[in-house]
Write a structure and sequence with these properties.
Blueprint (H helix, E strand, L loop, with lengths): L2 E4 L5 H12 L3 E6 L4 H8 L3 E5 L5 H10 L6 E4 L14 H29 L2 E5 L12 H20 L6 E6 L6 H4 L1 H11 L2 H6 L1 H15 L5 H13 L6 E3 L2 H11 L3 H11 L5
Parallel strand pairs: 1-2, 1-4, 2-3, 4-5, 5-6, 6-7
């Protein structure tokens, strides 16, 4: 059976990917931050081997050399966080955390497993986002991390061509996970954590974001759809560089990509219910 490492596999999209690939016959090495999740994953998912892996922890990443099986056929870089809010109001520490988890951590894991993937002519999958193609107001920090991840993946794909290692980006939009179901709570917490002057300045922006989140939660796709796309990316004879999950996001990208910047900004401002 082929073997895959999945980061951020304790819940949400990562856990669903682990479940899908295990059902498809993969041996799954599931990276989780909390050792308490080990027994639960073993009980719920066959052919899974949990390991403790915080992608921002240098010791955890270094330990992959010894904790992974000798043969590894793929890595699915799924671990990620979302830091929301207007750029002006996000602390520098939170900006660093956003980039550390979503970019540096994913690339560090990839570096660590590339010797094994070179031997197996394996595959690298990054779970990106529609936010890696379109930058939305009050999601600038997250978009910055996803844009950076996409740029790194594009370079890596070309660099690894001589060894036959395919590099794939999977780009979902809103997905029906615990993180997205509690997004309205996150927005409220983000607003409460803002300095008072920023909270006053951006109150209309945040009010618009609250309305968008409520509407978007109703349109979220099941994580199984993302997992199915990942399974396709891992098994296709000639995988595409990018897989956009769902027709809605595909249509959105098609409509926005050809617009002049000023027009595009007006459209995004209207869609995100932001003040003009």
């Amino acid at each position: 059976m082929p073997t895959v490492l999945i980061t951020g596999a304790a819940r949400g999209i990562g856990k669903t990917i682990a479940t899908q690939l295990a059902a498809d016959g993969w041996d799954v090495v599931a990276g989780v931050r909390n050792p308490d999740d080990w027994q639960r994953l073993r009980a719920e998912i066959p052919h899974v081997t949990p390991i403790t892996l915080d992608v921002t922890n240098e010791n955890h990443v270094a330990a992959l050399a010894d904790s992974l099986p000798e043969r590894l056929d793929a890595v699915v870089n799924n671990a990620g966080v979302v830091v929301a809010g207007p750029i002006e109001a996000i602390t520098v520490d939170d900006l660093r955390r956003q980039l550390d988890v979503n970019v540096v951590g994913q690339l560090a894991v990839t570096q660590a497993v590339l010797p094994r993937l070179r031997a197996s002519r394996g595959r690298v999958v990054f779970i990106s986002s529609l936010n890696g193609r379109d930058s939305f107001p009050l999601m600038g920090a997250c978009s910055a991390s996803k844009f950076a991840l996409e740029a790194a993946a594009d370079a890596l794909r070309i660099e690894l061509t001589p060894w036959g290692i395919a590099v794939v980006l999977v780009e979902p939009a809103q997905t029906d996970t615990d993180m997205w179901r509690t997004a309205d709570t996150v927005v409220a917490e983000t607003e409460a954590a803002m300095p008072a002057d920023n909270r006053e300045l951006y109150q209309r922006h945040v009010a618009g974001m609250k309305r968008v989140v409520t509407a978007s939660q109703k349109m979220a796709v099941p994580p199984a759809r993302v997992a199915a796309v990942v399974a396709e990316a891992l098994t296709a004879r000639r995988p595409r560089a990018r897989y956009v999950v769902g027709w809605g996001p595909k249509l959105q990208l098609a409509l926005l990509s050809g617009l002049p910047t000023r027009v595009r900004d007006r459209v995004l401002r209207a869609v995100a219910k932001q003040p003009g």
